[in-house]
Amino acid sequence: MLVLIKFLYITFLLPPGLFIAILTMLCLGLYRRRQQGAGALAVIAVLLYLISIPLVGDWLMRSLESRYQPPPRISGDVIVMLGGGATADTPNVHGQGHLTGFAANRLLTAAQLHYITGAPVIISGGQVFANTGKEAEIARHILLGLGIAADKIIVEGQSLNTADNAKYTTMILAAEGFTSPILVTSAFHMKRSVAHFAKYQVAVVPYPTDYQTNTKFIFEWHQLWPRADAFYNSQLAVKEYLGLMAVNWF
C-alpha cells in the first residue's frame, strides 16, 4: 500500500509527473474532439516522460560518469578541486556559507586525497552571482576546520565557469612549479574538465567523485516513475554534452 501511495503522488501530484498527466489529459481531450494538436501534445508528453524517469536520466548520467575511473595508485604533486556552487550567508560551523552537494562531495574527496598524499590543494571557484558565495573562500574555511594546514591550501577565486577553472588554475600551476595535478570534480563533469585543461597543454590525473548513479545497471520498476531528480540528471547530462561540443568546436 505504501509503495502504491508513493507511486500515485510522485506520478500524478508532483512535477514533472503532474505536467505529464496534464499533457496526457489535454491530448486525450483533443483526440476525442478530433481537434488538431493531439499528436504534438502526445509527442511532448512522451519526451517529457522519457527524460523524467530514472531509467533514462541515470543512463544519460552513467554515459558520462563511466568515462574515467579513479586511478588504482594516486600520484601527483598537487590536488586541483573544481567548485560546483555555494550559498553566501548560511550559518556554518566555521563561518558563513555552504558548498552545494556537488562541491561538498568534491571537497571531501580532495581532503581525503590530501591526507593520503600530503599534496597541497588548489580550490578553484569564484562568486558567480551576487547571491552566491565566494566558493573557494568557503571551501578554504572548511578545509582549515578539518585540520588541513593553511600553507597547504591555495585559493583561486576568479573562476566563473569550467573554462575559467582551467585558465586560472593553469597559471597557478606554472607559477608554483606543479607538473602533475590530480583533478577532482564530479564524475559527470570530468570529461569536459579534462578537455578544458588540455587546451592549455596541461595533462591532469583525473580523480572523479560525486557519482550520481551506480556504476552497474540494475533494473527496478520504480525507475519508470517520473521524478524531479531524474529530470535534473537528464538536464545535467545534456548540459555536459553541449559543453563538450562547445569545447571541441571553439
Structural class: alpha/beta
Mind summarizing the main beta sheet? 5 strands, parallel
Strand order of the largest sheet: 5-4-1-6-7
Spatial extent as radius of gyration = 22 Å
Total number of helical segments? 9
Beta strand count: 7
Helix percent reads 40-55%
Alpha-carbon distance between the two ends: 54 Å
Poorly predicted sequence stretches spanning 5 or more consecutive residues: none
Q: Name the overall outline.
A: elongated
Order of helices and strands: HHHHEEEHEHEHEHEH
Mean pLDDT: 92
Q: Could you tell me the strand content as a percent range?
A: 5-15%
Describe the overall structure.
The termini are far apart. A five-stranded parallel β-sheet has the order 5-4-1-6-7, with helices on both faces. A two-stranded antiparallel sheet has the order 2-3. It is built from nine helices and seven strands. Helix 6 links the parallel strand 4 and strand 5. The model has no long low-confidence stretch (mean pLDDT 92). It has helices spanning 2-13, 17-32, 38-51, 54-65, 101-117, 135-145, 162-176, 190-198, 228-249, and strands spanning 78-82, 91-92, 95-96, 121-124, 153-156, 181-186, 205-209. It is elongated and about 70 Å long. By secondary structure, the protein is of the alpha/beta class.
